[in-house]
Backbone:
């Protein structure tokens, strides 16, 4: 980064200072986001919008745990941070509302969530709530991924890859393909399975889906997911 573009450290707020120190200790913004149970975009806003005041107590204790106790496991650090994260209050003293994407699942169980490249890079965390709610309701689940054509193991249109899906493959001019897995016709997947996989991946939906695709021999381990869509419905 050139000196012209570097933000003077004196202009950083306390949350950004703490985030800088954690990054110097080897953590990424994505790690920090997991520790405070928020999206990685919020950590970026510590720098761009001077947000993060509510997380200073938690980040202070996390940094202390890293520096004095040598703790590096994000799950342990998240447990340390959790009791010290409080909701903002309004001028009247009431809890401020937190703007989040609503989980739109209809009474019939129908719900859809899509993420693009930026959200995928940070673990598609906004889809985790959709999957968790679908699991709580006992819904079925299907998903569509876009991957570079060379990343797929099975040939385009293979019935072994995604049998019974009407929109088997969508080929794009940028040398990528969209393939769908699961549908109401084939029964789809138990949302609880993917909720468990997501939990096992530390809340990273992208990693959970990628692991399933690799385990089932559908993509190469180094293939990159470029687009992800999750769909839910209630089983008959």
Residues:
């Amino acid at each position: 980064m050139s000196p012209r573009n570097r933000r003077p450290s004196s202009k950083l707020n306390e949350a950004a200072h703490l985030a800088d120190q954690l990054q110097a200790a080897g953590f990424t913004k994505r790690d920090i986001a997991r520790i405070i149970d928020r999206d990685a975009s919020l950590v970026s806003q510590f720098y761009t919008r001077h947000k993060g005041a509510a997380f200073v107590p938690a980040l202070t204790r996390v940094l202390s745990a890293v520096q004095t106790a040598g703790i590096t496991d994000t799950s342990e650090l998240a447990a340390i941070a959790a009791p010290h994260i409080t909701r903002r209050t309004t001028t009247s003293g009431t809890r401020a509302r937190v703007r989040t994407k609503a989980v739109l699942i209809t009474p019939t169980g129908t719900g859809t969530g899509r993420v693009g490249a930026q959200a995928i890079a940070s673990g598609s965390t906004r889809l985790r709530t959709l999957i968790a709610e679908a699991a709580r309701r006992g819904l079925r689940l299907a998903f569509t991924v876009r991957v570079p054509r060379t990343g797929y193991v099975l040939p385009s249109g293979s019935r072994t890859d995604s049998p019974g899906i009407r929109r088997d493959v969508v080929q794009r001019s940028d040398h990528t393909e969209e393939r769908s897995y699961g549908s109401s016709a084939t029964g789809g997947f138990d949302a609880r399975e993917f909720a468990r996989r997501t939990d096992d991946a530390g809340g990273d939906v992208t990693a959970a889906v990628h692991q399933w695709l690799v385990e089932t021999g559908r993509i190469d381990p180094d293939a990159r997911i470029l687009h992800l869509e999750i769909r839910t419905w209630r089983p008959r």
